[in-house]
Specification:
- 38% of the residues lie in helices and 14% in strands.
- By secondary structure, it is α/β, with parallel strands linked by helices.
- The chain has an eight-stranded parallel beta barrel with strand order 1-2-3-4-5-7-11-12, surrounded by five helices. Strands 6-8 form a two-stranded parallel sheet.
- Helix 2 runs parallel beside helix 4, helix 8 packs across helix 11 and helix 12 runs parallel beside helix 13.
- It is globular and about 65 Å long.
- The protein binds 6-O-phosphono-beta-D-glucopyranose.
Length: 472
């Protein structure tokens, strides 16, 4: 009954800014997410760190000082790989220094050494909502081309230093979220009317496409065996029409194209016609050079990494909102929702795998999927989280179906295998982990770690190469 390949990358995923804490330790500079008191979903942020204000991510779960034992727990879970990001501001505190911060580099040396010693393959996101605050303030983030060489400098340092240990890289976390959470996805505030905002969005994403192509070029030069991927939120693309009304169906496609464009450009190497149509309709003029287009064409990425949490439903004329889970759509009467109102739809994941495999015919890496729930310690002293185990099993079964459909899924990293700070809301209460962390919304708690019931479920799935999904 074995469906999952022997070398399948069973894993877990976190991001530096949601786990490490130590926000100003060892020379680290301020990142955009260091200025959000209530998460990124509403694009509300301070312009500086306000003295005395509480920022949940500043201490987070103190992974910076506890990674050693946390990774040992991940090894006990059986993880074959572990995805995390590198906090840009640990390496270049403002993004603009000439020389990197050696203390920051040493931290990731220790982290990757530990993973390698435990037999865990490191998987790295270069930029996961962690643009240096200085680059936001001076340039409005990725709206400016100034960030392209700064990102290249960062990549050169990272590839040179860690290329011997890190073989799987992805450049930007969920850049297609730029429409709904621009501060996090592109370090940028949107201003003015809708056409102006589109101008900003398409300029920023273009700049990121160029930066991605340069990273791929650099990787070929410095780490020829490494795999370079892009990372998108496919919860943004899993959009159902609310009815068979043609306007609902075509509107859903137009929404999906907000995501497709990033894959079209970075995996196929060229801009699709539907984007040029949008630029024409809204009189958007992007600063694009022939050299940039040639670079994008030549240096395409090798795999598509993606997050998937939920699907959504589009009805003609509906105002489009979004958060870290993708588009916020009309309620879907066929789906149950999580405690945070996210529809639970494993078949939507199989759909996304098939759709993307058909479009891009490249390896797929599911690097985020999970269930946020308000877990509590029961009277028996344990943490019972059957909904999480069910979510895990149902989504992995959907992946097994996708693999049997012919999709080249190379791995799966559960989001937040240990509780971390929620990106969207800044809460600790919204927990994803197989390991509980005693830390609460107000910052109280001992930070003690404790396994939940789901820990054994995932461990068993990994141990049996997925076969336990089909037993009992
Ligand atoms: C993804 C992000 O969009 O969603 C993660 O890449 C985030 O950073 C995850 O944590 C889940 O969202 P939230 O808001 O529940 O933490």
């Amino acid at each position: 009954m074995t469906v999952f390949p022997k070398d399948f990358l069973w894993g877990g995923a976190i991001a530096a800014n949601q786990a490490e804490g130590a926000w100003d330790v060892d020379g680290k500079g301020v990142a955009i997410t260091d200025t959000t008191q209530h998460g990124i979903a509403k694009n509300v942020h301070d312009e500086e760190v306000v003295p005395g204000a509480f920022y949940p991510s500043h201490e987070a779960i103190d992974f910076y000082h506890r990674y050693d034992t946390d990774l040992e727990e991940m090894a006990a879970l059986g993880l074959k790989c572990f995805r995390t990001s590198i906090a840009w501001t640990r390496i270049f505190p403002t993004g603009e220094e000439d020389e990197p911060n050696e203390e920051g580099l040493k931290f990731y040396d220790r982290l990757f050494d530990k993973m390698v010693a435990l037999g865990i393959e490191p998987v790295v996101t270069i930029s996961h909502y962690e643009t240096p605050l200085t680059l936001h303030k001076k340039y409005n983030g990725w709206e400016s081309k100034k960030l392209i060489p700064l990102f290249e400098k960062l990549c050169r340092v990272l590839f040179t230093r860690y290329g011997d240990r890190v073989h799987y890289w992805m450049t930007f976390n969920e850049m297609n979220n730029v429409h709904t959470i621009p501060y996090a996805a592109a370090g940028m505030d949107l201003t003015g009317d809708y056409p102006h905002q589109l101008q900003q969005i398409y300029q920023a994403t273009h700049n990121m496409y160029v930066a991605n192509a340069q990273a791929v070029r650099l990787a070929k030069e410095l780490m020829p065996d490494a795999k370079m991927g892009i990372m998108l939120s496919l919860s943004q693309a899993a959009v159902y029409p609310a009815s068979p009304k043609p306007e609902d169906v075509f509107g859903a496609l137009q929404l999906q194209r907000r995501t497709f464009v990033s894959a079209d450009v970075q995996l196929r190497g060229y801009y699709p016609g539907y984007v040029k149509r949008i630029w024409k309709d809204y009189k958007v003029t992007i600063d694009i050079t022939d050299d940039e287009l040639a670079l994008i064409k030549q240096y395409t990425s090798q795999y598509l990494a993606f997050s998937y949490y939920r699907s959504s439903t589009y009805q003609e004329g509906m105002k489009i909102y979004g958060d870290t889970g993708g588009v916020v759509g009309k309620p879907n009467p066929y789906l149950k929702e999580s405690a945070w109102g996210w529809p639970i739809d494993p078949l939507g994941l199989r759909w996304m795998c098939n759709l993307m495999q058909d479009r891009y015919d490249c390896p797929l890496f599911i690097v985020e999927n999970g269930l946020g729930a308000a877990d509590e310690i029961s009277e028996d002293g344990k943490i019972h989280d059957p909904e999480r185990s069910a979510y895990l099993r149902d989504h992995l079964k959907a992946i097994a179906d996708a693999i049997q459909d012919g999709c080249k899924v190379i791995g799966y990293t559960w989001w937040g295998p240990i509780d971390i700070v929620s990106a969207g809301t800044g809460e600790m209460k919204k927990r994803y982990g197989f390991v509980y962390v005693d830390r609460h919304n107000d910052g109280s708690g001992t930070l003690k770690r404790q396994r939940k019931d789901s820990f054994d479920i995932y461990r068993q799935i990994i141990e049996t190469d997925g076969d336990s999904l089909f037993q009992g």
